[in-house]
Specification:
Length: 331
């Protein structure tokens, strides 16, 4: 097994790829690490794929001009190209599937993540026993309009998830091989890989302060809409981590409480009318009171929530991976 798989998702990063490959190669050679560099082209529309093909030819064959500076006997370049833009999570998932290294490192292709951090990230996995080490860009070279929402976002994620990471969305991370083979990253869930890893049973999650470099080429591919998507995904991943295998606990519990509240309210209104009627006091028709209709709506919502939980349990019971559990060791 090789020491490292370095997964690099990319989208229209033509200018930076050759420099990144050379930098990764130099760092790994100096550290004496065998590695594979896995580029995942997420449907680029520029010349990124052609550049990746050139880099792969130079490193894998060591024949083209300049190959001696890039290639080494312990290195390889592999590449995957999507037919169109599926998103970073899909690119990471494809890279994780292809990875063969003992440790898997992910980094962005825009040169804002420094490959110099790779040996120390690997050391923390191998020697200190972490399952996952996330980078923390403590000093960021981004405008305030991007830094401030990021701080608020990360504080919210820490509060909701309980994982004490300062930079959940940092692209520079290192994983034990078993982690990337045990989680499924989809949609926009790449932001929450530490939460998915913990859900899969990998609880040794660490953090390392890493260098954040100013963008050298091009411009950011992410806009303000990622904040909205991020919070929606946080709700999803929080729900899945707590109730993904037992949805009845949430829907059935809420449904039961609402059904009881509506039922008690309706009975109280009826009993109150009968008591007043027996005592000859002025009475008001039950159906004339707004509280009666509130009670009916609560009753119906309770039944609907309970049935939702019941149906979710039936679907979960018939899921093909319902009895697939992450195994740390086996003898």
């Amino acid at each position: 097994m090789i020491d490292l798989s370095i997964v690099v998702p990319l989208y229209n990063e033509e200018e930076s790829l050759r420099e990144l490959a050379a930098w990764v190669g130099r760092v790994c050679r100096e550290a004496g690490l065998s590695y594979e560099l896995i580029f995942v082209d997420d449907g680029s529309t520029d010349g990124s794929w052609a550049t990746v093909e050139d880099i792969a030819a130079e490193i894998n064959t060591a024949k083209a001009t300049g190959a001696a500076e890039l290639a080494a006997s312990n290195s390889a370049v592999r590449a995957i190209k999507f037919s169109h833009n599926y998103g970073k999570a899909a690119a990471l998932y494809a890279g994780f599937e292809a990875a063969r290294g003992e440790v898997v490192v992910t980094m962005d292709a825009d040169l804002q993540d420094s490959p110099d951090e790779i040996p120390e990230l690997r050391r923390m996995i191998i020697q200190e026993g972490y399952d996952l080490v996330s980078g923390w860009k403590r000093e960021r070279h981004d405008p305030a309009a991007k830094r401030l929402p990021s701080k608020f976002y990360n504080a919210t994620v820490r509060l909701v998830s309980g994982i004490r990471l300062h930079d959940m969305n940092c692209g520079l991370k290192a994983y034990r091989r078993a982690v990337v083979k045990s989680i499924e990253v989809y949609g926009e869930m790449h932001r929450y890989i530490p939460i998915l890893a913990r859900q899969a049973g990998f609880r040794r999650i660490g953090e390392k302060v890493v260098e954040h470099r100013a963008r050298k080429y091009g411009q950011s591919k992410y806009g303000i809409e990622r904040m909205v998507k991020g919070y929606l995904d946080l709700i999803t991943v929080s729900f899945m981590s707590r109730f993904g295998r037992r949805p009845m606990y949430l829907f059935g519990g809420l449904g039961t409480l609402m059904f009881l509240a509506g039922g008690v309210t309706a009975v109280w209104l009826i009993v109150e009318k009968l008591v007043k009627q027996s005592q000859g006091l002025p009475i008001r028709g039950v159906a004339d009171q707004p509280m009666f209709y509130i009670a009916l709506v609560t009753l119906m919502l309770g039944v609907m929530l309970f049935l939702t939980g019941f149906l979710a349990e039936l679907i979960n019971r018939n899921a093909p991976d319902r009895n697939r559990y992450s195994r740390e060791k086996e003898i």
